[in-house]
Write a structure and sequence with these properties.
The chain is of the alpha/beta class and 226 residues long. It has a domain at 118-191. It has helices at 30-46, 65-71, 106-122, 128-146, 152-171, 181-188, 202-205; strands at residues 24-26, 58-59, 80-82, 85-91, 98-104, 208-210, 213-215, 223-225. The strands form three sheets. Strands 1-8-2 form a three-stranded parallel sheet, with helices on one face. Strand 4 and strand 5 form a beta hairpin. Helix 3 packs parallel to helix 5. It is elongated and about 65 Å long.
Length: 226
């Protein structure tokens, strides 16, 4: 946003503008966050642009958010969605210290399950081994993105919902078809990858060592936080 840098938007007829970036900016003090938001709005106005009012907000978030909101008579700290995860304030079960919790956005999971349901309907009469191989590949890709620390409950819920949808699809093969849940799980367990966390915490994932020094970079992410 430097004054010598300019952003060009294609506004010709029939061209759909791509979504701009959704940054998340953190500040230690509330007045700094409000000043930044005001300056950003003024800067955007110079280019005849504006921030989306429903997608731009100031929230109190961080290790002191819970205490500060209690003093103000407010509820739990607000959450925000970014990169497919709902971020919220919580504490480590092991150490009791503050951590940023992440769980898969519920709307996104339901949308993906609807896609899985339609695909299973299309593959309803395929051999179980063929459909299972497709599910195995799909679920491995799902884990590669969503298997982050603290997201295990969402992963278990998603996998169980996929199982139920597959079982319902198999039962639709015939009016006389019957398969119990126990028989179904015993015959299809081999197609479901084990649920395990594949990514470390952000403070470890972004740990870069250069010349014996250690530097940390937080996750960049459209919410201005204070």
């Amino acid at each position: 946003m430097r004054r010598e840098s300019h952003v060009r938007f294609c506004e010709s007829a029939g061209v759909k503008l791509p979504r701009a970036t959704h940054p998340i900016v953190g500040f230690q003090h509330e007045h700094e966050a409000k000043a930044f938001l005001h300056d950003l709005q003024e800067r955007m106005r110079e280019f005849e642009l504006a921030l989306h009012p429903a997608k731009t907000r100031l929230i109190r978030f961080g290790r002191h958010a819970t205490k500060q909101r209690e003093e103000r008579g407010e509820g739990k700290p607000e959450t925000f969605d970014f990169l497919g995860f709902t971020h919220f304030c919580t504490r480590s079960r092991k150490w009791g210290s503050f951590v940023i919790g992440r769980k898969t956005i519920k709307k996104r999971m339901l949308k993906q399950l609807q896609v899985v349901k339609m695909e299973l309907r299309r593959r309803m009469h395929d051999p179980i081994a063929k459909t299972g191989a497709w599910l195995n590949q799909m679920l491995k890709g799902y884990l590669n993105y969503y298997a982050v620390p603290g997201n295990s409950p969402s992963l278990w819920w998603y996998f169980n919902e996929v199982r139920w949808r597959w079982l319902k699809s198999l039962k639709r093969r015939s009016q006389r078809a019957f398969m119990s849940w126990e028989k179904f799980t015993s015959s299809t367990d081999r197609f479901f990858p084990s649920i395990r966390i594949l990514h470390p915490l952000p403070c470890h994932r972004f740990d870069a060592r250069t010349r014996g020094r250690r530097s940390y970079a937080g996750e960049a992410g459209g919410t201005v936080r204070c």
